[in-house]
Amino acid sequence: MSEMNGEARIKMLREAPIPALLLKMGVPTMIGMLVTGFYNLIDAYFVGGLGTSQMGAVSVAFPLGQALVGIAVMFGGGAASYLSRLLGEGRGKEAGRVASTALYSSLIFGTIVIIGIECRLDHVLLGLGATETILPYARQYAVVYVASSVFNIFNVTMNNIASSEGAVKVSMAAMLLGAALNTFFAPVFIYGLRMGILGAALATAAAQAVTAVMYLAYILNRKSVFSFSPKEFTFERTVFREIFKVGIPIFVFQLAASAAISMTNMAAKPYGDSAIAAMGIVTRVISMGIYAVFGFAKGFQPVAGYNYGAKRYDRLRNATKVAVEWTTCFCVLFVLLMAAFPASVISLFTANDGSVVRFGSWALRVNVITFLFYGMEAIYSMLSLALGESLGGWVLSAGRQALFFIPAILTLPRAAGLNGVIFAQPAADVITGFVMGIIALRLNENLKVLEKNTASRRAADGKKPAG
């Protein structure tokens, strides 16, 4: 798949009509993120045929992958916001140093964390909610799943950096190929070669390795506006400050998502393997909607960052309005589909376990309702981060699965038992929705003021006599 050169991508961010630009930027990144979610669904679909304990093992290991991806998003996502603004300001050389520093930092830090997890794997899995019957399967799966996450750290970091320069087709092609290979490898390894749950982890590892090779080819063939030379790696405080200003809130969101899943597993643990498996299925299904919206929001981020850096506030406000409308429409359709056919959806991921289907159907219907708010939350979170306003982005990113979810999951199960486990996330979503409304109003007012001031200055400059 051919990709436009760097200069053409920058011109597209500056001049293309907003609806067409959002489609061109948002759809490929949305597909890329959906592919990430598809990896998790493929594992759940094929492992579900092995038994409830095996499905529970995948659910227990899932937060580890989320946390490790958080490292990649911290450096890659944090750099993406800064890179878009630097490119918008015409500071290409500085952008190159930022891109290289983000990539190598994520790989170094990610490798250290992976080694630490592998050394204490059993303790980690038990802390994530593994029961005595789930632990053997979780260990077998996670030992490969965690080690191979180094490929995913590289892939997600590159996905963010490539998106910041408008190279969304590269990311889409790499992620689609990886998903196709995982879909092929999983049944072959799990059932054809009779590897069981280990085969699921090996299939994912092989697919992610191929995706990494495609990104390496993108770098080595000099398709990017960045060189990614090790010589460009820098310890400059300014670079890391700008990366972490946006990256740490996103990292907190990823860690919060990981903690939310593990805390849900722990809350469901007293009710048996079926409850853990069911909540794991619900999490994966709703994650597909989250990945779709978040992926589109990632495509919106470079549009927002570039036009903010270029002081094109009119384009920025228009892009925000269109992005909110489109993501909200998607959320409505997703909610209607999941709420209408919950049993059919849950049944795809279990080997005829009626208790998993009954519990999972009720949990899916309850949890999907508050997804209606997620489109606005994702866009305004990305807008805050693209503008370098980390506080608003942090509150929206961390609020749904940390600030508001953790108190809910700690208190509601004690008061309402198993229903408390189910209603914890919806309760957090409602509170996050109110906070999002406040932040959205403030951001919109700020952009109106900036747009008005810029128009006034341009009018005044136009009245000055020449010479």
Short description:
The chain is mainly α and 467 residues long. The protein has one domain (11-455). It contains 18 helices and no strands.
How do the strands and helices of this protein lay out in sequence?
Elements: H1 6-15, H2 18-47, H3 52-88, H4 92-119, H5 121-127, H6 135-147, H7 149-164, H8 168-192, H9 197-220, H10 237-268, H11 273-309, H12 313-340, H13 342-347, H14 354-369, H15 374-386, H16 390-403, H17 405-416, H18 418-463
Key traits:
single chain; 467 residues; mainly alpha; 18 helices; 84% helix; globular
Structure description:
The chain is mainly alpha-helical. The protein has one domain (about 10-455). Helices cover about 85% and strands about 0% of the residues. The chain has 18 helices and no strands. It has helices at about 5-15, 20-45, 50-90, 90-120, 120-125, 135-145, 150-165, 170-190, 195-220, 235-270, 275-310, 315-340, 340-345, 355-370, 375-385, 390-405, 405-415, 420-465. α5 packs across α6 (about 135-145), α10 (about 235-270) packs parallel to α16 (about 390-405) and α12 (about 315-340) packs antiparallel against α15. The longest helix is centred in the last third of the chain and has 46 residues, at about 420-465. It starts with 5 loop residues before the first helix and ends with a helix.
Major sheet details: none
Kindly provide the radius of gyration, computed on alpha-carbon positions and rounded to a whole number of angstroms.
22 Å
Write down how many β-strands occur, each being a DSSP E stretch of 2 or more residues.
0
Structural class: mainly alpha
Beta content comes to under 5%
- Count of discrete structural domains: 1
Q: What order do the SSEs take from the amino end to the carboxyl end, as H and E?
A: HHHHHHHHHHHHHHHHHH
Mean model confidence by pLDDT: 86
Shape: globular
Termini separation: 50 Å
**Contiguous uncertain segments of 5+ residues:** none
Helix content range of the residues, please? over 70%
> What count of helical segments does DSSP give?
18
